[in-house]
Amino acid sequence: MDFDLTEEQRLVRDTARDFAAREIAPKAAEIDKSGRWPSEIVAKMAELGFLGMAIPEEYGGAGLDNVSYSLVMEEISAACASCGVIMSVNNSLFCDPIYKFGTPEQKKEVLTACAKGEKLGCFGLTEPMSGSDAQTMATSAEKVDGGWVINGAKNWITNGPHADYILVFAITDRSGSKVKHTAFLVPKGTPGYTQASPDHKLGIHGAHSCTVFFENCKVPDSAVVGNVGEGFKVAMATLDGGRIGIASQALGIAKASLETSVAYAKERKSFGVPISQHQAIQFMLADMAVELDAARLLTWRAASMKDAGTRHSMQSAEAKLYASEMATRVAHKAIQIHGGYGYSTEFPVERHYRDARITEIYEGTSEIQRIVIAASLLKA
Ligand code: CAA
Question: Do 257 and 375 fall into the same domain?
Answer without folding.
Answer: yes
